[in-house]
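User: Could you walk me through two proteins back to back? I'd like the raw sequence and the structure tokens for each, with a short line separating them so I can tell where one ends and the next begins.

Assistant: Of course. Protein one, sequence then structure:
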Amino acid sequence: MLTRDTGTLEWCLSNRPKLFAPPLQLPKLGTSDHFTVLIKPKTIVPNQTPPVNIISKRELRSSRVREFGRWITQYDWSKVLSLTHVHEKYDLFNSTLTEAVTYYLPLQRTKCCSSDKPWITHKLKSLIIKRQKVLAVYGKDSQRYKEMRNKVLTACMECKQKFYDSKVASLKESNISR
């Protein structure tokens, strides 16, 4: 884009070009030989919600894993073992195991926003939702709301600490130059 009759003299550089609308070349002001260039940020729609991703995870609480372990050790596999063809054995084994995994360790769908902090867990999100429901029903001065608020704050601190312990704490011993 020309900024002067003879060419481009001025530059506008950014490390985040996606945040700006394409520049507009406006007419010269008065007797100047420079064009006016207008660079505006992209307009953001108010109250625009960030995109939501839905993540599916298996419920792996220790009680559920123990139930599955109990089932798999006590299940009568004689039906599978009595079959003669390998493909039939595999199909029956696979379908039986898949049904059990689906029953004992069901998939949980979690909404994950791009604005979520990396330490936020499904458990914390569900506590926040419960707290908000209690707030709507009983109000912010109620004892129930204060209990839920304290639970959320405690869970939040625990999640941050677990995230720090698993991700960040090991960086202190790492070689910074690498």
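----
Protein two, same layout:
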Amino acid sequence: MLIHPANNESEAPDSVRFVWTRSQPNITRYWFELSLDSLFNLTRVDSTGTDTTTVLYSLTWGATYYWRVRAGNADGWGPFTITLRFTISSTGISELETGVPTAFALDQNYPNPFNPSTIIHFALPKQTHVRLEVYSILGELVSTMLDQEMEPGFHRVEFSGRDSHGRTLAAGMYIYRMVTPGFTEAKKMILLK
């Protein structure tokens, strides 16, 4: 069941948190779709989710979006939920997410696929050392975006599609990984040319 954003709701443009209920039984992953049309022809997909929430950033002001989710396990994917729609409000400036998060998190980059750059958001519940790296699909380290002590809070880093030497990367799939003492997570992103 889809919880937030509710049908025909208005959302702020800087970030939208999507929340749905956990499916039963034995669900191991979720397939999230967001589209600018109700037929899902222009769709942004994340099929790597294991949690019942995701946050997307920098959605288009004034645009109406449609979203749906389906659950999967070892036997395959189930049917999609009903489709809900919401509009990004085109007036006013909303506050950025502030405060201290309750858990470590690495969000899906946006836009994805991207060219020439993308934004990666992450959350730190306490001061800690953070290393944010990009790997080729073959497992080669191609860039270290961060390697430093950071304060608790919500953070964002821009990735320019370049390696540690400033050379433009080839089009393809890459893995970005956040490593802290006690928390490691990786996600896929696609660089287009």
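Residues 122 and 161 are 18 Å apart (CA to CA).

Let me know if you want the two compared in more detail.
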